Amino acid sequence: MTSPETTLVPFASPAAATGAPYANGPVAYDGILLAGFGGPEGQDDVIPFLRNVTRGRGIPDERLEEVAHHYRHFGGVSPINGQNRALKAALEAELARRGIDLPVYWGNRNWAPYLEDAVAEASAHGHNTLLAFATSAYSSFSSCRQYREDFARVLHDTGLGETVTIDKIRPFYDHPGFVEAFERGVHDAVAGFLAEGVEAGEIQILFSTHSIPTADAERSGARDIDWGEGGAYAAQHLAVAAWVMDRVRAAIPAATDVAWELVYQSRSGPASQPWLEPDVCDVIGELRERGRRAVVVVPVGFMSDHMEVLWDLDTEAAEAAESAGLLFTRTPTPGVAPAFLSGIVDLIEERLEGRPRAERRHVTSLPGGFDVCRPGCCENVRAGFKPAAAGVAP
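RESULT FIELD:
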């Protein structure tokens, strides 16, 4: 075991501890850590859950209740825990099918089962070399670094930092197993509208993802790479959307005239703080003026149909489309589709084998996809840097 105090990458396996962007050789991991966001599972859980999500920001309960109505609408139950239970079971089955004998431990950042309990359970079973799969595909503070900070916090608070290592699977936004569902969904939606007599130029594709503070977006990804406006977070989403549209247009020649853009949703910050725009519902409200008759919303930033999809898209965006007199469809998320499950195991095998970067599957030409996050990436300007696993300290 390598001491976290003597490595460039705290709490890392020897193959990742040197600080090189890609792991140096294979690792004999003995457990998979499925790291989720978490969600309430009853009305009494909603406000305590939201307190966990917003911890340290001093938000009073009356303001949290303004967000809570999304959960109240569904009986206080977020679908995300059920989806992660299904993902854990399906991942275990796919690992077994592929002949990989690794247990899967599931822990959340914000609700039970917590990451602390999952890591402690793994260690109690003698599984101390863990590979984490975080249920978020892109690079930003909330979708990557915050998980890494939680890994470090858990190892410190449990006293397991000297015995347990946690590496993290690379951002998987452009792995073919992840993007396959979006490609298929857009293809089927465009073909369906064309079959109904809607002209290609009357169809609008909106690739939607969670909005984040502009300052966080600008600091997302490795600092020595020029990602352009919106940092790695925006660049990665735009690259995936462009790839999907290229594939759909190759399969459906008429789709060349179908317009698309990247939009954002689920903003939760104060009006005084700049967040990524435009908002999905605002854009939907403008589409009739652009001559559109139909809108296809693609939840490209999401792995499964959790609350931001069910409420912000299936409810609010659908209502905005109805008010605008537009035909509306929302395409599927990867969920537990076979291609996605196979893709997750591909990502696990990359690290088990120490597979070289050139042999790894990806569909975009963006740089990055690092096993070990680079110094200072994905900074949270409001809170500053905290200790984080699976990356070089800033």
